[in-house]
Amino acid sequence: FQQFSDPGSSRKEHVKVTSEPKPGFLERLSETSGGMLIGLVTFLLAFYVLFTNEGRALRSAKSLDEGLSLVVPLDSIHSISQQNEGRLVHLAGALSTSKPLFDPSYGLSIQAVKLKRNVEMYQWVEYEDSKEYEEDGEIKKETKYSYNTEWKSEVVNSRNFDREIGHKNPSAMAVESFTAVSPNVQVGSFVLSKGLVDKIDNFKQLSLSHLEDPHADVTRREDYFYHSDNPRRPEVGDLRVSFFYAGLSGDDPHLGSADRVTVVARQRGDQLVPYHTKSGDILEILYPGDLSVEEVFQKEQESNTMKTWALRAAGWLSMFVGISLMTRIFYTLVDWFPVVRDLVNVGLKVFAVCVASSLSLLTISVGWLFYRPLWALLLMLLSAVPILVARSRVLPKKQQ
């Protein structure tokens, strides 16, 4: 390879050019064969994703309808009624915890459900920008490496850099990040399950303006504690620590009133636990703020719809990529002829789009067959449309 340094940017930027002989026909054919195997796996995975997603979506929708018809809004969150034992209940109220969470290393405590310490280290980060081109019968790759210093939460391994000299990072952080979770979280007289507590994740950064420097070698600046000689001009290896909290419980003079949440779950004694529906799904719902029963289940239905369409798109894309990789061999066979190669490339893309769309609709319709047979039959008919459209475009070209 050839290597060139940029004198204007010192050690922070350099360019490397590597070259290798242009692969022969048999070598390209071998690579295409490997891609076909990957394409087949991706293609089959798409069927699994699309089929199971429809069953999951319909099961979730059915479970939510069941939950909405059975849920009991509680009159009071401060008294536990035995009549609601084992039933799906709806309640809203302020969060409360048994004791505050604290970080003794920085003299910080807060009455909240979760306290997160986030540690960042000032480190070198490598960026690559590559481009390939043909020259003198060879394929050349020109890669531009640039380096910058940034605050990062994870250790950046400088051993993987193209040029570690002058850009070396420490191998570990002297202070670790962590998240503390309150062992007992309540809404009124009801104790939240672990699953419900996990849903309390609307973290906000904690202001440190009212705190003093905890140690002689730690400096507070704005909302960070710095392990640095000069926080304004940090050096590689310096640390800065920030704190985040979720689920404020109890009134705080600096942060305000306790956070309120809305919960839909099964009442078991004084605990709120998962509710198992007849459809085989689990209802264990928590949202910030005060929401009515209808608002909670509407949000859940919207979330289910978004997840369903996201997985449908992922399934279609997986099928498209799989078909493209499996048919790539036709492109390889004609890549000696530029005009033919370009036409074949366009044709293969159109073929992949049409087949992926048809098979995706067909797979979705099979997933609906046991739940909504009429919709399933309609989708089966629609699945033929992309193929028919593609065929109708091919026939006139043949006649011409």
TrEMBL record:
It is a multi-pass membrane protein. GO terms for cellular component: endoplasmic reticulum membrane; nuclear inner membrane. Keywords: Endoplasmic reticulum, Membrane, Nucleus, Transmembrane, Transmembrane helix. InterPro entries: TMEM43_fam. Signal peptide: none annotated. The keyword Membrane applies. Its main location: membrane. It is found in: Endomembrane system; Endoplasmic reticulum membrane; Nucleus envelope. The chain crosses the membrane at residues 33-51, 309-330, 350-370, 375-394. GO terms for biological process: lipid metabolic process; nuclear membrane organization. Belongs to the TMEM43 family. This is TMM43 protein.
